[in-house]
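Consortium newsletter contribution from the modelling node. Members have asked for a concrete example of what our holo predictions look like. Here is one, prepared for the 5'-deoxyadenosine complex that several groups have been discussing at recent meetings.
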Amino acid sequence: MGKKKLYIQTFGCQMNVQDAQKMAVLLEESGYGTTDDPEQADLILVNTCSIREKAAQKIYSQLGRFRELKERNPRLLIGVGGCLAQQWGDRFFRRVPYLDLVVGTHQIHRLPEMVGELERAGGRIVETGFCDRVGSLDIPAQPAAGAVSTFVTIMQGCNNFCAYCVVPHLRGREQSRPLPEILREIETLTAQGIREVTLLGQNVNSYGQTLPGETDFTQLISAIGKVPGIGRIRFTTSHPKDLSPRLIACFGEIASLCEHIHLPVQSGSDRVLRRMNRGYTAEAYREKVAELRRVCPEISITSDVIVGFPGEEEEDFQQTLELMREIRFDNLFSFHYSEREGTAAVGMDRPVCEGVKRERLRALQALQAAHTLEKNRACVGRWESVLVEGQNRNGCEEMTGRTRGNRIVHFPGRTGLIGKTVSVRIGEAFAHSLRGEVEERGGADVH
Ligand code: 5AD
Ligand code: SF4
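And here is the predicted structure:
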């Protein structure tokens, strides 16, 4: 008999993608190989996201599409994992009657056992308990074949309790992975051709606080900086209140640490930041940015903003735009506030109406589009160090890669360059990418 087939669909953040890869690794031992075609699957897992309402809505419509497959093949198993599974627990069964399995964020390591039980005895299983130590934290995720860059989970959970955010409620408290485990995983990844790692956690600056001894995030970056074969290190996400002078100094000291930081500001108004429980002022944020730019003038800075948090007046919103005009983010992810069950912001006074949120988001995104283009145009004429990731999906003659500042670059080139770092002279700038020509002597590794 051939291998049983697993189809996994992920929604939401990179942590979910990592978890999905871990699920695939775990279920391989139960005899499952992955497939891209849900019609071929014996087991379908949907890794859900609950960060914003829109993400949650998409999941129900997706599950609806699998209903027909279940009707045709009653032996098909369908499960949900991720944050929405954690939040809804057995309520999911009521809403999706053909669902077999609900796996919470701390129960992934038990998937083989749960799937085995369903195969043997049928029925329905829901497991959403929290554990002191997340069993799946140390399971290495398996990047896609041929990948050059990948994410490595270094911690998960969050202790910050920003008023709008479900993460601390659904992923639990912060937990860090021991440093030697992370190094071992990265060494294995280099042997598979990985040249760039992005260290992943909800608040990477807190790395080490749950470990015995004195390990901190800067020690981890320094240690990874010494792993042969890893030319580039990135991390996401960091919290402005915990961005220490030591971590800022790393941008001037560690050669493989890329000149890019994703530093979510959320709002430019102190009044809103206070209500969000962010723990810093707009001025403190500006100072951190100034310090980052002093240590590393070419650093690219990206951020997240929420518009329409309860109590956000026009004046507060204008302060956010003002902060954007001053800082000029290289890129910005913006969202309109959506209320999430169980968070402190539920029922806060002075909610902002949907029309106003929409209009603010539109104005903010128009401003950012102009800034992103301005920043991209400033790259024209420069030589950029580009890690070649693969062929450009839009044009078969072109290769694609990223600058150290995390900009996508397309250039004419051959597939033999994949995994190499080349020097590209930027000729054109677009809204979401750059185009250039690789150096004549191209192919030599540079940093
Ligand atoms: N509503 C809107 N945006 C949110 N984010 C987190 N929670 C919410 C919410 N309830 C945004 C924040 C965060 C990003 C990952 O998602 O900007 O940084
Ligand atoms: Fe959510 Fe705030 Fe924690 Fe980020 S730092 S995961 S926004 S609670």
